[in-house]
From TrEMBL:
It comes from Petrolisthes cinctipes. It holds the Pfam family 2OG-FeII_Oxy_3. One of its GO terms (cellular component) is membrane. Its cofactor is L-ascorbate. InterPro entries: OGFOD3, Oxoglu/Fe-dep_dioxygenase_dom, Pro_4_hyd_alph, Pro_4_hyd_alph_FE2OG_OXY. This is Fe2OG dioxygenase domain-containing protein. GO terms for molecular function: dioxygenase activity; iron ion binding; L-ascorbic acid binding; oxidoreductase activity, acting on paired donors, with incorporation or reduction of molecular oxygen. Keywords: Dioxygenase, Iron, Membrane, Metal-binding, Oxidoreductase, Transmembrane, Transmembrane helix. Residues 1-28 are annotated as: Disordered.
């Protein structure tokens, strides 16, 4: 998932306002010769027609959903191979043996035990008592300390209360489960685990039906992980709550040419995929309840590797 941060390359309304001149109240009218006069009615009508066709195509495809993994299924392993995009072309020689040559997506309900997922859920819930977004999407990053608070982020490791919320066992459990996901991804995609590195951002997410307050709360936009973070090669999500029981909405959607494929969150379910544009995706808006997950991201580039988090005493 990816509570997913928006592509930083996309403008977010941060342009400076155009200053108005002191004489802006005056309107200059320029007569257009009749032979070059523009038929605005025709242009507008055609634009409306085009928009109508695009909307029809979009919503028709949006409603065309095929389940890849249902919540009520217990899936030992389910995978599909997809042709790799050209996003990795320049990296094939640089990171030989790691850069995806075999692309696709995979779901396991067998990598993480339900008890382990419950332990991570407890860690996330305790950590988020220290903050929480004013909108519907909150994040907790044990590596950087980033924690949503109101309409911004704080470093939770600077809070005095941090030592009363977490203990060393929490971090050992976190690292143990991360390592299991790391190994599963390396084995499935046929790459060396030693050449695959945990990368930033890796974080817990909590999503509710509260309306967005900032751009960081708008997690539902279609996106490609590698366009947002160029260092990404493999993305995984571990779900900590159940679709249809703990929350409604919030399914993970892969956007494919034929039809969209859905992954319904299930506690302990791991969903992993190559991070390029072959796996364009989004998360449905949560309509009720609370959805918890953890995004665990991997790179082939050692310069973007991050270490396991530690609680300093």
């Amino acid at each position: 998932m990816t509570v997913k941060q928006r592509n930083p390359r996309r403008p977010a309304g941060n342009g400076k306002p155009v200053p108005r001149s002191a004489d802006s109240s005056r309107t200059e009218v320029v007569e257009t010769p009749s032979k070059y006069r523009i038929d605005w009615r025709r242009i507008v009508s055609r634009l409306l027609l085009i928009i109508g066709i695009m909307a029809t195509v979009y919503f028709t495809k949006k409603d065309s959903m095929m389940p890849f993994a249902k919540q009520k299924e217990e899936i030992t392993k389910r995978s599909v191979d997809i042709s790799c995009s050209e996003d990795y072309t320049e990296e094939l020689r640089q990171f030989q043996g790691c850069t995806p040559r075999k692309c696709g997506r995979v779901v396991w309900d067998s990598v993480v035990r339900p008890s382990e997922a419950s332990a991570l859920l407890n860690i996330a819930q305790r950590g988020l008592t220290l903050g929480g977004s004013a909108g519907g999407a909150s994040i907790l990053d044990l590596h950087s300390g980033a924690l949503s608070q109101g309409n911004a982020f704080i470093n939770m490791y600077k809070l005095d209360a941090i030592k009363t919320v977490f203990n060393q066992d929490d971090f050992r459990i976190y690292s143990h489960i991360k390592n299991k996901i790391h190994q599963a991804i390396a084995n499935h995609f046929g790459i060396s685990q030693d050449g695959l590195y945990l990368t930033h951002p890796t974080f817990f997410s909590r999503i509710t039906s509260a309306p967005p307050k900032t751009i960081h709360d708008e997690y539902w936009h279609p996106h490609v992980d590698k366009e947002t973070y160029e260092s990404f090669h493999y993305t995984s999500l571990l779900y900590l709550t159940d679709y249809g029981q703990d929350f409604e909405g919030g399914r993970f959607i892969f956007i494919d040419k034929d039809s969209n494929k859905t992954v319904e969150p299930r506690r302990g379910r791991v969903s992993a995929f190559t991070s390029g544009s072959e796996n364009l995706h989004y998360v449905e808006p949560v309509t009720s309840g609370t959805r918890y997950a953890i995004t665990v991201s991997f790179t082939c580039d050692p310069t973007h590797a991050i270490t396991d988090p530690k609680l300093t005493t």
